[in-house]
Amino acid sequence: MSLLRAYAKINLGLRILEKRPDGYHNIETVFHRIDLFDEIELSGSSTIKVVSTSDEAPGDESNICHKGARLLRNHFGIRDGVCISINKKIPVGAGLGGGSSDAATVLRALSAYWNRSIDEATLRTLALQLGSDVPFFLGTGSALGRGRGEILEYFPLDLPYFILLCNPNIHVSTSWAYSMAKPGNPAEEISLKDILLKHKEDPPRLTELLRNDFEAAVFREYPAIEEVKNEMLKRGACYASMSGSGSSVFGFFKSEANAEEAAGRFRSQGYRTFLTKPGFVPSDF
Questions:
Q1: Residue 166 and residue 54: Cα distance in Å, rounded?
Q2: Does residue 55 carry a catalytic annotation?
């Protein structure tokens, strides 16, 4: 089987609405893929096993791809095995959904690998058992996410910017971030989807209307992440935000030269950077 690409996402705005009786939070966000991906290969094995190029991604049964393969195998009622090899390029614990994207890619590819069929509704049900944002990666395009992030409305979103992503090598726990974040007031707010479609070429309005409710708590605990955002804006970004619960920060640049200059600055600090050009479309979609 050829190499599969599992793309990272950024969150274009993230509103934490309220805590639910089940302990989760209702949110509103827009998921948007960027030009950064892990590579996954499935090969023969008598058991389910995961091999990763990253020491930060576990290779045992706690790996989300291992869990996904077991879920799918139990659903089919089979005993087949598979070796899941992951060339890990998406930083771990960085607010980019790397593990979730890997798991969704494995779920979709593994049914074909095992020569079994599965309907989309069942596949999404299994994906949600693995994580709130795993279902997003089963679809195409950008998506407005509500509920835990699993209530999805896909739509095309062509952003006219160079998107610079910087990961400052800080791991932010999602559970900790939720425990510290204060829900905003969702009353009578225009949806994030509508904001982006109406104002995507108006960065001042994006800055005014978009927010990430994790930023305040995360910036207090990890001021270096806020410094990355401020540096993005200082070096020419017309809009910048943290993605998800952190620690990655992205900026919109109208100038590729300014984006590259900022990237060089961050790399000199030992940070990882990735650039997505305007008009990017994931090649597997």
A1: 19
A2: no
Are 146 and 170 part of one and the same domain? Answer: no
Per-residue pLDDT tens for 113-123? Answer: 999 999 999 99
Does residue 103 contact residue 134 with C-beta atoms inside 8 Å? yes
- Residue 141 belongs to domain spanning: 4-154
Task: Let me know: does 40 contact 102? Beta carbons within 8 Å.
Answer: yes
Find, among 176, 165, 124, the residue nearest to 147 by Cα.
124
Residues 146 and 168 in one domain: no
What angle do helix axes 256-268 and 223-234 make, rounded to 10 degrees?
150
Query: Which amino acid belongs to residue 198?
Result: K
- Pair of tokens at residue 60: 């045992």
Q: Which of 137, 154, 171 is the last residue of a domain?
A: 154
Rounded to whole angstroms, what are the CA distances from 163 to 19, 35, 231, 241, 275? 32, 9, 14, 11, 6
pTM of the model: 0.94
9 is catalytic: yes
Find, among 17, 68, 12, 21, the residue nearest to 40 by Cα. Answer: 68
CATH number at residue 60: 3.30.230.10
CA–CA separation, 40 vs 35, rounded Å?
A: 16
Exactly one of 133, 200, 213, 229 is catalytic; name it: 133
The verdict on 27 and 93 lying in the same domain is yes
Cis amide bond preceding 247, omega within 30: yes
Query: How many whole angstroms separate alpha carbon 145 and alpha carbon 85?
Result: 29
**In sequence order, which ranges of 25-118 are alpha helices (DSSP H)?**
64-76, 98-113
Average pLDDT over residues 229-247: 97
- Block residue for tokens 């904001």: 195
CA distance 139 to 151: 12
Checking if the pLDDT of 2 tops 80, the result is: no
CA distance 232 to 184: 25
- Residue 281 CB partners (closer than 8 Å, separation 6+): none
